[in-house]
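Structure ticket #2291
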Amino acid sequence: MENSKFDLGSYLKRINFTGDLDTSADTLKKLHVGHVMNIPFENLDQLRGKKISLDVEKLFDKIVLNERGGYCFEMNGLFYHILKEIGFKVKNLFARVYRPGFGFSPKTHHVLVAEADGKEWLVDVGFGGNGPVAPVLLEEDMEQEQFMRHYMISKHPEFGYLLQFKIDGKYENVYAFNMEENSQMDYEIPNYFTSTHPDSIFTQVIMCTKATEKGRISIFDNNLKIVANGLVTEKVMQSDFEINEVLYKHFGLSLEDKYLEDASSR
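Resolution: structure written out below.
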């Protein structure tokens, strides 16, 4: 890639990737798992009213060089370019997130589909919550286990495919998507809306989460939730100081200005 900052080696170091680098399904899985377990899903810039740029150089600067995280348009936006640089065939797609009691959202989530070993895989390093930890094979009605989590791809009569996640023995909807490929410009408007509109959840409360081999560590507003081996530990944080300590301890982040400064302005 002709880009002054984009460096594949720096990204691989950021996600602690080791081993051969090829276009196999095994490599795709290692890249995906490495990303979601080392780079947090977070919205600290949105809360501070900072512009969320989808320019690949600025994404690389923020997520790799400055060791920040991001949300779907940033994380999957960068991951798309990483996969293309390695040589994968990959598509940019939209998804409709499911909210219990509300149904499916408009197309406001960015996902990817990549080809490896002659098969297609749903790739999503930017969902957080119940999002996949590894690529999900696009094979209908087949239970797929990832680090004690279970996923399934089903057909949706209106929206194409449906990603589901097993909770308490029952599969629940995560989001729906179809195979219509999108260009970079298609993400600019939903990115602007979700990162700036006062009704968007991303502008209202802190969200930060990272998958682990045993579960997940999450902050939502002033609540800390740690899931490990099926056991859930929760704590209500009482101050910004306490939130800041937890952000730094578990995610290497901070509410302080020096950590959130836009590197492009330095």
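Closing remark: The radius of gyration is 18 Å.
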